[in-house]
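Minutes, project check-in
Item: structure for the 678-residue chain
Input as provided by the requester:
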Amino acid sequence: MGDTNIVECIKLVEYNPSYAKGIADMWFRSAEGWNGAVMYRTEESVIQGHENSSFLNVFLAVKDDEVIGYCSLEEYTHDEGALYINTLNVRPDYHGKKIGKLLVLTAVNKTMELGWPRLDLYTWAGNTKAVPLYKKCGFFWEKRDDTTHLMNFIPTVLKTEAISSFFETADWYDDSRRTIEIKPDGRRENKFDYSEYNWEKDGKKLRVEFERTGRGMRLIETDDYLVSMTVQNHELVFGRSYKVTFGVVNKSGNPLNVAIKGLNDKNITFNFEKSVYIDEKKHQIIEADFQVGKIETEQDPGRTHSCVAAEILINGKKALFKVGILPAYPAKLSMYKYGNESYLGVKSECYMEIENKFSEDAVFEIDIPEMDGIRFEQRKYKIELKGGEKNTLSIPYTLDKYIYYITDIPVTAYLKTGETIRFRKKIRVAFRGRNGIMWGEGDDFCEILNGPYSVSLNKENNWLWLNRIYGDYFSTFWLYPKLGKPFSSELSKKKPDNVQCCREGDIAILKATYNLEDFKGLQLTSICELNPNGIIQHYYEVKNLRDRETAEEIWLSDTFYHDMYRGVVPYEGKFIVLDDTAEDSLLYWHSEKITENWLFSYGEKCTRGICWDKEDKIKLDNWYMYFEHNLGKLPPGACVKTKPVTVAIGTFNNWHDFREFALKQAIYEKPALTNIRI
């Protein structure tokens, strides 16, 4: 049967629980498409996974009552203004049959229907055979070293009024003339990355170009005209004005009226209006000034940057142009020290790296503030740097007590032009030892430390990281909490309304409180208690601040990751030990067969155990674990707490001792382990 006939036999449906068994079978038969990893799913685990998800839509390709393709769509939580294909799968025996194309185009169309300007997805670097499909469906492969990330701007193109008439006859997929290459997209100019779409239909052409960091359109070219927006440099020091250039080319000689209106965006101020009328073949340049305002934190390279933005009317029809820039401090400063521990009463050195972000030479004066507990041998430093030059200062100090040194450092920059610029840069260094409680908070993080242990909250995405010095990094962490049902991804982007760090005896406590928008009147607090012995308890409080009972039952999804490298799992009444080949073990286990309330892993550098209340049931899904708590309908003023999940980092030498701790009982017989290789 040909590919076209197969597609005609496919029924595209949205997920409902009646398809769960078919989805489980699809995953079991899809190992070839996932580097040989067999994904064991049951009907129940598929249903649970979808109930716990924040998917907006899940599209299924069904043939003869078999699920052969799967595509889930949700709001992209790591950036603004985009939806995200969370998972795309086609059963290997249907590869090359255009099923993937059908699912991806359905996701693109749904993104447009919902009014979002962009659709993103990730894949792994070795998945090159899928790249042509993604690019033909409108995705650009972003130039990044840390991940394989693709962005689709077709929704922006099709909603742009200035070029909508072209697509009255042209099809954006069939009439694309874009060159497809299996490599990251775009050409680089002055550290900007530009990627372009090209279409041709009945002799008419259209070219549209997007700038990577601003995620915006910056050029339109038709047979009649070319309009572009260009910023000279990508990295710009805040506190100054810069030029943006608009190019307007009348290619046909037909009357061309272009009106430009600057728009403010984040810390970019752009007050400008200009109209030009060109009735002959001519190229006109328009220059304007914009201002880069102060920034509080460094730009996350994976998120949409501040933009120079303009609304442009081309013969009365609107287009939004956006070019991202990288706002920079006059100097990039960071303070650090070598080693995990500090030592009291010993003359030591920390270091400050400073980079001149001006293009011209500058002299920087740095004044290091005093703080109780640390004595700096010298507090004032002066250093001359050429444009773009980087150097490191050695800063001698003596520590009187363990402290979290977090402060705004005043810096004065002197330029050869006579200009003087003063600014402050927040720096942080934990001068920590094997004991003592401390904490520090910045614009995008909060951290508590208790001796060698730490808990860090990323305020941007509300992930909570647990660590020990000389331990395994990133082995246990919590993802953002979700209230439902349906479950909301609101806290993937919303910063806490309040963060409180305190101590109670020898316990350090971090509380992050959120007033919810998706569940108005409800307040959620994440609470983490860090003991000096490496035992950490994490739980939530949910308050109803309104004067009436909630209309529906409130559910809370508590999602986390716990590395099971060299782990021990109580499973089907046995105690399974995982060897070094079983790192991705969650793919192979059924959560309902975990028979006790704990998991343990020896790890590479230190042990980690996690346990929970016996009445709670852990659930496994792909690489993470979660609990679902039914908090019921909350009366007015009610406050409900979840039972804590407990993590022990390096506290227990073996799984037998941790099992006793989790079960809260003495166990005199130590059962044997069952070895398994996956």
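Outcome recorded: The chain is about 10% helix and 45% strand.
No further action items on this chain.
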